[in-house]
Amino acid sequence: MKKMVTGLGILLAASFVFAGGNAAKALPAVAKIGNPCQAETVYVDSDTNLMWQDAPYTDAEDGAYAREYSAGKAGNLRHAVDYCRRLDYAGYRDWRLPTVDELMAVHRIEGEVFKNFRDKDFWSSTPTSDGKYYVIYPADAYKYKRSKSQSNYIRCVRCTKNK
Hints:
Layout: H1 2-18, E1 42-45, E2 50-53, H2 59-67, E3 74-75, H3 77-86, H4 100-107, E4 122-127, E5 133-137, E6 142-146, E7 152-153, E8 157-159
Antiparallel strand pairs: 1-2, 2-8, 3-7, 4-5, 5-6
């Protein structure tokens, strides 16, 4: 009986300390490291009333592009469509995969309009007549046909509302 009472006392004391008992007077201060969050950048083309996602590309996305798999802003066509449809970025949730004409137009603008870019193919939502889909190569703003299973970069777009 004495062992049971002692064990119960230790268990209660331990649960009091670990469950938020007043064992320490204050938590240690946390070092301030600045604001680790960056603003979600966009490019707005006032001529076309389109807002373009301009998020940084990650190493994982570069790897997905290079190794033909899907991750984040790189992947096959199905992943690209789903990525844009589910995107919650810069306070908006109505993103979509751009058409080939929209992509060609934004990449024909003088100078580089995006802060975050890749010199590789980007998916469009425009199908070809032979079951493939168009991509745009930003350096020349021309369209090329690609298989739906191929991995390409993704840049989503949304329409802005005239106010």
